[in-house]
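Entry 12.
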Amino acid sequence: MSMRRITCKGGPLNGKRYDVPVGLAEFATRGGTYKVTDKQQAAWHADRAKAPARTKA
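Predicted 3D structure (tokens):
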């Protein structure tokens, strides 16, 4: 099985490097998904957007 090394960008694994199979398109982590790009990176996509901050009246 051929592997390639990717670097995660954003999210909980930001800056970490991993060896993944060549055909891997995405992988899930707590709170979102990393989508593997052709540039040897994995971009973070959160499952849901953060709620806006509440202001006191």
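Annotation: The first strand starts at residue 3 and ends at 9. The mean pLDDT is 89.
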